[in-house]
């Protein structure tokens, strides 16, 4: 009798039992893993949307944001999916025809209506925030600014979104929300990393915001914004300089050069060969310079360029007052500023200008930047026009001034040095979303950044599935081993029949 037969006779049921247990075991494991995977599979995504209109001094832009409907609270999840630049100037330029301020928005709003899925329209919040252009108009003529807002609100209410109002942001809000945007997109808030300061240069105002160990808000409470985000406390320093956006700074610089009401000026901030007739009434038509308008000046002056960086820097510097400072330290105009700290992101006109001048790379030493800028300013206007046929002449004419202004503002104004200049990064977008105050503004108004860190599952989905699978296989192996006494005994002896 063979050994096999002998065994079968001893345990006549052992083979079917082993087979049955094995099959049940395999089925159980497959079922367990399948249930675990299916139960924890990410559900098909549904999205929510938010729309913010940035009514700046020079133009209005519309941004659409999108985030997964189930996870409003998770950082880094809100993304900009679309932006639309409104044709024409900023809404404050429509002071004499407010109706047109509203009408100007309709093209971008129609785009938004198409981009946001129809079934989400009614629940999609729509905000309009106006910055320094409307701040200035409000100072100059508050009735006119009210009328612009009325026209804009009427136009926006015609769209199917959930309109949440149009208002002027304070300088602090503009600075602080720019900082929130940059650090949210960088994922620095949730991960409790060192934050990045925000530098925003607009047409009519400019903002600086950063966290400094020196600053707890006590020395100058107006410059402090306290946040509690994801369980961390931040004492943010922020300041907005009205009139120090690049368009208003240019007006101030022109005003400095036309104090005596001359018929012509030779401007070091414009390229040699540049010549343009300008109206006194237009240059001085802003609260930033209106009190400097020379008496008895002619109607126009001839504005010619002489392209000299260092002379331009001297004129630009005259816009900053370094004399009085009642605090431990100041930037300029008697404004408190703590010690600069950490990395910085510089966006809006900082980026447009430095990118145009091929100076967006801050590993270029500051000395080389001024050298390049000097050469750019000294380049004849005709040559500049030939080299950049696609660029708007208004922008093109101003790059020598703008570059000089930016370097002067950063070094003389904010006290950046050759050592910490490389800490600045000129940026336009972070992970596909524009750097600016709009995202931070929406995150705040929709309560999308919690004060406390949200609870998250201890394991990510993939980790969970892997562990369940490994444990199931381990249990199965142990189970099979436990049946060992029932295994057929293997014999290497030749079978004897
Ligand atoms: N490609 C571009 C686009 C814009 N600009 C200039 O950059 C400046 C600022 O633009 P922006 O940041 O859009 O300013 P606003 O938001 O309109 O102004 P504010 O924030 O002061 O209200 C303006 O002088 C504009 O002419 C530029 O030089 N090059
Ligand atoms: Ca702006």
UniProtKB/TrEMBL annotation:
Active site: residue positions: 174 (proton acceptor)
TM spans (from-to): 17-38, 463-483
EC number(s) reported in the record: 3.6.1.5
Compartment(s) where it occurs, according to its Swiss-Prot or TrEMBL record: Membrane, Caveola; Membrane
Enzyme class: hydrolase
Record-stated family: Belongs to the GDA1/CD39 NTPase family.
The name this protein goes by in its record: Ectonucleoside triphosphate diphosphohydrolase 1
Species for this entry: Paralichthys olivaceus
Taxon lineage: Eukaryota, Metazoa, Chordata, Craniata, Vertebrata
């Amino acid at each position: 009798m063979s050994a096999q037969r002998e065994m079968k006779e001893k345990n006549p049921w052992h083979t079917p039992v082993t087979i049955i247990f094995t099959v049940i075991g395999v089925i159980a494991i497959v079922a367990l893993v399948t249930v675990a995977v299916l139960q924890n599979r990410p559900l098909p995504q549904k999205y929510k949307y938010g729309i913010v209109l940035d009514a700046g001094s020079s133009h209005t832009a519309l941004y659409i944001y999108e985030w997964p409907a189930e996870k409003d609270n998770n950082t880094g999840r809100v993304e900009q999916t679309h932006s639309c630049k409104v044709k024409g100037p900023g809404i404050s330029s429509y002071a004499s025809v407010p109706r047109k301020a509203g009408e100007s928005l309709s093209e971008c709003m129609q785009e938004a209506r198409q981009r946001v899925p129809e079934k989400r329209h009614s629940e999609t919040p729509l905000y309009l925030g106006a910055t320094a252009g409307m701040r200035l108009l409000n100072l100059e003529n508050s009735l006119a600014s009210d009328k612009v807002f009325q026209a804009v609100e009427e136009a926006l209410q015609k769209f199917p979104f959930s309109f949440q109002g149009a208002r002027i942001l304070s300088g602090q809000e503009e600075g602080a929300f720019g900082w929130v945007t940059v650090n949210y997109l960088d994922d620095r808030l949730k991960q409790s990393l060192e934050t990045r300061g925000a530098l925003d240069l607009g047409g009519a105002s400019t903002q600086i915001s950063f966290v400094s160990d020196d600053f707890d808000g006590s020395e100058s409470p107006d410059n402090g914004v306290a946040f509690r985000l994801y369980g961390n406390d931040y004492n943010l320093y922020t300041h907005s300089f009205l009139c120090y956006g690049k368009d208003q700074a240019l007006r101030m610089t022109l005003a400095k050069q036309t104090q005596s009401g001359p018929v012509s000026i030779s401007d070091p901030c414009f390229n040699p060969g540049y010549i343009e007739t300008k109206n006194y009434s237009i240059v001085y038509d802003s609260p930033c310079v209106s009190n400097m308008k020379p008496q008895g000046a002619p109607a126009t002056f001839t504005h010619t360029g002489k392209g000299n960086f260092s002379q331009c820097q001297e004129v630009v510097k005259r816009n900053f007052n370094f004399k009085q400072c009642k605090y431990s330290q100041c930037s300029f105009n008697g404004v408190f500023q703590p010690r600069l700290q950490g990395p910085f992101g510089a966006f809006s006109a900082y980026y447009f200008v430095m990118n145009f001048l091929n100076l967006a790379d801050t590993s270029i030493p500051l000395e080389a930047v001024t050298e390049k800028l000097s050469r750019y300013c000294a380049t004849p206007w005709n040559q500049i026009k030939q080299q950049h046929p696609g660029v708007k002449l208004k922008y093109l004419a101003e790059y020598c001034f703008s570059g000089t202004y930016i370097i002067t503002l950063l070094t003389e104004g904010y006290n950046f040095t050759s050592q910490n200049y490389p800490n600045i990064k000129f940026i336009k977008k972070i992970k596909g979303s524009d750097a600016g105050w709009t995202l931070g503004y929406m995150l705040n108004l929709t309560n999308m950044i919690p004060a406390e860190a949200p609870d998250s599952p201890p394991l990510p989905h993939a980790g969970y599935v892997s562990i369940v699978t490994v444990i199931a296989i381990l249990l199965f192996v142990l189970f099979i081993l436990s049946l060992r006494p029932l295994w057929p005994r293997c014999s290497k002896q030749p079978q004897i029949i």
